[in-house]
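S1.2 Input.
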Amino acid sequence: MVFFDPTTFNLFFDNQDYRSYGAELELQADLSPNLRLRGALGYTETEIRNVSPTSVTRAVNGNEVPNIPNITASLGIEYRQDLALFGTTGEFVFNGDVSHVGARQADVANSFEIDSYTVTDLQVGWDRGNIELYAYARNVFDERPIYFTSVFSPNANAAIVGRGRQLGIGARWEW
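S1.3 Output.
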């Protein structure tokens, strides 16, 4: 694990012993010939152990491993319907996905928690197998998820923040 010392501006790499366990459940169900539902739920517990008394990272036995949420979840739906377009056969396709990442610790010292986030993506289009035309909306509700943080001092943190809402059109052609 990496620790930044704000007094010396040095990075320290310190291997930590930890234990983790969890479970994940995934589901996919064809509700009809045109409608598919998919989902996943994950649970993870972590614990830092056997911290050396000489460690400069401020890690403490029993702290959580950073950047590992306890809960993750996703739910998706796909709908397909035959549709002729431009004089050729294909399928109308709708996809909707919601993903959730739970709160997690920012560093080995567990000095602060990174907020949970939920992102919704939508896509609608026409698919002919080797040709696809589509419009999409990523992060529909303009969530600003924090993916990663680094602690520089008690009053200064850096973060990698996800993109806001994105709208676009796309095409795929395979040959």
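S1.4 Remarks. The mean pLDDT is 89.
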